[in-house]
Design goal:
Blueprint lengths: L1 H16 L9 H23 L3 H28 L7 H16 L5 H6 L3
Helix pairs in contact: 1-2, 2-3, 2-4
């Protein structure tokens, strides 16, 4: 349940953080954000299945590192794309790229099916 909530929050963050872009190549930013989401989801799954307490702590430390990097990246994206918010066509493009990237991640495949069109 925690994993599902984390993934939904990450997906929402993605859509909110990159609502639109006038950059010629926002694909790289979207793919990088999807990479953070995938890595976080994979670590969450690993943590949930791990029984060894020492390994759980290692995984938690890795998760914290990834989350910190993702937060820093998201802040830079807020600044980069702060002036553009109404471009529906670009929003659709970003969502499409994100869905395709998420499909490549084993830990996020199921989430893609539940995302709105």
């Amino acid at each position: 349940m925690k994993l599902k909530n984390l993934l939904l929050a990450a997906g929402f963050m993605c859509i909110v953080m990159l609502p639109s872009c006038n950059n010629a190549s926002p694909e790289a930013d979207v793919k990088k954000l999807a990479g953070f989401m995938c890595e976080s989801a994979e670590l969450s799954k690993k943590l949930l299945s791990e029984q060894d307490e020492a390994k759980q702590k290692e995984i938690q430390a890795q998760m914290e590192k990834v989350q910190k990097e993702a937060e820093e990246f998201s802040k830079s994206m807020e600044e980069k794309y702060k002036d553009i918010e109404e471009d529906k066509e670009m929003q659709e493009k970003i969502q499409s790229i994100m869905k395709e990237e998420m499909k490549k991640c084993d830990a996020l495949k199921d989430m893609v099916d539940s995302m709105p069109e």
